[in-house]
């Protein structure tokens, strides 16, 4: 019975099933009919005692895996579905990441001092309960996060503090669209307008997906990028490129039907005609491919930086690689200048010595990556 309750708790968590589902009569009927031998726990028992027991098992397993190791702590915040502000603490030890605790700080002031108290309590928890040695702490580059890291070093000078470089690269992408040439900005705006229009007109989207199945043998979703989804601008552009043949086929044979999808209002018809004109621009998809070529190295770096096994020496090598890539004269000058300036600005704010030391301590590289004239 205890094992059944524990597995049921895990099932509800991994399937994202609400606890109140246990109080739905048909759910209880289903379990009684097909699993009649087991005593089905109620919502309060499953989300209370059983959940607490499972959480304790997870903590014991984490402790067993990380005990005695050095670890990096991390924290970040978000709003959940109930609009509560949540802070989560994470540790990374031996190339594995573990979610440890979450805190609801909806009623608290969102400042660096309060964040510092949470971090200090977590360092104490990691040290005393999980029995690890915390050697570094990582946050994003928000004002509160940056100030908290400065305060943390004042309290615990033996700890290294670092920015989340996946977030930093996302900011570099933002700098591109602030400083890039008007042609690049307009191209991205056109791409987003096309995505929005098709996603908001179900009949047109259905026609596009039918054409995709014929031309590509599968239906692809058009991706609308959002700022909190790193790499989504690249993926949005890439998806349009992947669907190029379907768009071309649709424009060749069903333009009139696409216009009808807009409805009867004149402004809606004009919007549909505008979207079609954007798709029919000479060289539109060729220019999209060039835009994707500029965004791809940054998307790759972002995925590299947000992996569980990223090290400081990897960050430095990847940054050097990005600097080399965007020094290529074949790339758009405005994008090159924006990326190089952004990388230099963000690198200047780092504790550079620890990155260089990590690279020198890499037994496969040592000092071979540095110029002989480098200081």
State the main characteristics:
61% helix; flat; single chain; alpha/beta; 10% strand; 375 residues
Write the layout of secondary structure elements.
Elements (H helix, E strand, L loop, with lengths): L1 H13 L10 H10 L8 H24 L3 E10 L5 E9 L2 E9 L7 H17 L4 E7 L3 H13 L4 E4 L1 H15 L2 H19 L1 H15 L15 H11 L1 H10 L1 H6 L5 H15 L3 H22 L6 H14 L7 H16 L3 H9 L15
Helix pairs in contact: 1-3, 4-5, 6-13, 6-15, 7-12, 7-13, 8-10, 9-13, 13-14, 14-16
GO cellular component, one term: nucleus
Protein name: DUF659 domain-containing protein
Pfam family, one: DUF659
Q: Strand order of the main beta sheet, please?
A: 3-2-1-4-5
Helix content percent band: 55-70%
Distance between the termini: 67 Å
How many alpha or pi helices? Answer: 16
The largest sheet is: 5 strands, mixed
Strand content: 5-15%
The best one-word shape is flat
The stretches of 5 or more residues where confidence is low (pLDDT under 50) are none
SSE string: HHHEEEHEHEHHHHHHHHHHH
User: If you average the pLDDT, what whole number results?
Assistant: 91
Derived from helix and strand composition plus strand pairing, the structural class reads: alpha/beta
The total count of strands amounts to 5
Number of separate structural domains: 3
Rg value: 26 Å
């Amino acid at each position: 019975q205890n094992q059944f309750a524990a597995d049921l708790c895990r099932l509800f968590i991994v399937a994202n099933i609400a606890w109140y589902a246990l109080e739905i009569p048909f759910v209880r009927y289903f379990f009684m009919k097909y699993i009649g031998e087991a005593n089905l726990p109620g919502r309060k028992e499953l989300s209370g005692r059983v959940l607490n027991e499972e959480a304790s098992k997870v903590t014991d397993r984490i402790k067993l895996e990380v005990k005695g190791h050095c670890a990096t702590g991390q924290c970040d915040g978000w709003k959940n579905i109930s609009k509560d502000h949540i802070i989560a603490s994470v540790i990374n030890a031996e190339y594995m990441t573990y979610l440890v605790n979450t805190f609801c700080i909806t009623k608290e002031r969102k400042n660096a001092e309060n964040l510092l108290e949470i971090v200090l309590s977590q360092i104490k928890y990691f040290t005393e309960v999980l029995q690890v040695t915390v050697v570094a702490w990582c946050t994003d580059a928000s004002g509160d996060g940056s100030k908290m890291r400065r305060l943390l070093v004042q309290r615990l000078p033996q700890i290294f503090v670092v920015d989340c470089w996946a977030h930093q690269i996302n900011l570099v992408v933002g700098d591109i669209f602030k400083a890039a040439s008007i042609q690049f900005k307009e191209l991205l705006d056109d791409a987003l307008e096309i995505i929005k229009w098709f996603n908001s007109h179900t009949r047109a989207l259905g026609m596009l997906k039918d054409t995709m199945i014929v031309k590509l043998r599968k239906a692809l979703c058009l991706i609308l990028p959002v700022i909190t989804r790193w790499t989504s601008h690249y993926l949005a552009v890439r998806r349009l490129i992947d669907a190029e043949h379907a768009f071309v086929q649709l424009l060749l044979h069903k333009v009139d039907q696409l216009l009808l999808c807009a409805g009867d209002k004149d402004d809606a018809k004009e919007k549909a005609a505008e979207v079609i004109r954007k798709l029919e621009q000479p060289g539109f998809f060729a220019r999209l491919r060039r835009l994707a070529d500029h965004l791809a190295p940054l998307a790759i770096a972002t995925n590299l930086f947000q992996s569980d096994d990223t090290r400081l020496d990897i960050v430095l090598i990847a940054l050097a690689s990005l600097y080399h890539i965007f020094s290529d004269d074949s790339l758009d000058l405005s994008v090159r200048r924006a990326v190089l300036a952004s990388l230099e600005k963000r690198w200047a704010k780092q504790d550079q010595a620890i990155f260089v030391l990590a690279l020198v301590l890499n037994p496969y590289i040592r000092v071979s990556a540095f110029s002989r004239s480098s200081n």
